[in-house]
Amino acid sequence: MQESVNAIPDKYLHNLDPEWKEIWTKHGQDVVGAHLVTIEEFRQCPAKYSFTYPTWDGPDVHNVQDYIVPVQDPEGTITCRVYTPSGSGPFPVHLNFHGGGWVLGGLKTEAAWCRSVCNESGIVVIDVDYRLAPEFAFPVAIYDCWTALQWAISNANTLNIDPTSASIGGLSSGGLITAVLAHFARDSIPKIDLKLQLMIVPATDMRYVPISADKPTRLTPETCPYPSAIFCADLPWSPLERESWFLKYYISDDPETRSKILEDWRMTPVLSPCLRNLAPAHIVTAEYDVERDEAEHYGRMLQAAGNQVSMKRYPGVPHAFAHYNHPSRGLSRSHEFIKDTAQLLSHVHSKMMKPLSSAI
User: Fold this and answer.
1) Containing domain of residue 102, as a range?
2) How many Å apart are CA 171 and CA 234, to the nearest integer?
3) Rounded alpha-carbon distances, angstroms, from residue 57 to 63, 101, 102, 143, 165
4) Following DSSP, what letter does each residue of 315-352 receive, concatenated?
5) Is 334 known to be catalytic?
6) Cβ of 63: how many Cβ atoms within 10 Å?
7) Is 284 helix (H, G, I), strand (E, B) or coil?
8) CA quadruple 264, 266, 268, 270: dihedral positive or negative?
9) Do the beta carbons of residue 117 and residue 342 sit within 8 Å?
10) How far apart are CA 133 and CA 179, in angstroms?
11) Domains: count for the chain
């Protein structure tokens, strides 16, 4: 029965956030995991395979405008949605790369966060609608986002932004894109000096993820160095098989192709040949998340390379807790996350870098 599939295993109940437990118990029982169907089936009825109950569109902002930006490899266009606060400007700017495993998501995915941060931080937020797999597989999403960042810097006057005060960030797959673009910015000529790379529950090393999403695969310390991936593999809202499903469409389920791409640092940032002199980083993790430990491992690698890094782990909550931010029906931890990140972006763009202390 579907209810038994979506029931929360006992091992998670002790520390699970009570608000999340209530929301999932009441509203998550009928959700069919996207990893159980094809991408074509998902697209026919997204609501059937998505848990979206406690979300909202976000607060009103002073101005919202869409720009069509040309991209290459392959040639095409993407939409960049620009949220501008009230005031005369020029404003600092933050580019957001949404989550969704490079397969799902769009301009609605993190609209509430973008709008909230625009208002609370007084900065322009640009949400990037990069192209998705399987039609646009690795590494198209990365270079779409890189083009968006370059476009924003080059069009600073039109956008009424300060090109010397830019930051980037993203959730999950968007967090990986953020990690890669921090390298691109450091190595570009002229260099783009980012104020912050904000990585929210980022994927940084998915080499442990099994190829098949059709049946559960048991990880062990010998096959996976990250305890969170082993412990959280059977989470009903984001099991390990969901990660396999995303990778199938983004980097292929052909073993040879997949292995080759996973050895590319642009897919596995922990393999980066040089981690020195990167933008200041803040890494957000969630306690009940397969990807928690790989994200924190990457943060420690950045610290060891001499970079300014802060990290905060939000207790008791799932991978995508930041999405559940409805003002009356959402998670308190999500509201805390919005407050934290808005405050942090205000600090970094006011040239008073004050990272959140690590809560790990």
Assistant:
1) 1-360
2) 21
3) 15, 21, 22, 28, 27
4) EEEETTGGG---TTTS-HHHHHHHHHHHHHHHHHHTT-
5) no
6) 12
7) strand
8) positive
9) yes
10) 19
11) 1
Can 282 be counted among the known catalytic residues?
A: no
Residue in 129, 205, 289, 293 annotated catalytic: 289
Residue with tokens 């074509």: 40
> What is the phi/psi pair of residue 131, to 5°?
-75, 150
For this structure, is 35 an active site residue?
Answer: no
Q: Which of 172, 238, 252, 334 is catalytic?
A: 172
Note the pTM of the prediction, 2 decimals. 0.94
What is the per-residue pLDDT across 9-48, written as a single tens digit (0 to 9) for each?
999 998 999 999 999 988 887 788 878 889 999 888 887 7
- Which one of 319, 323, 334, 349 is the catalytic residue? 319
CATH number of the CATH domain containing 79:
3.40.50.1820
Q: For 171, phi and psi rounded to 5 degrees?
A: -105, 130
Q: Tell me: the pLDDT tens digits for 225-254?
A: 999 999 999 999 889 999 999 999 999 999
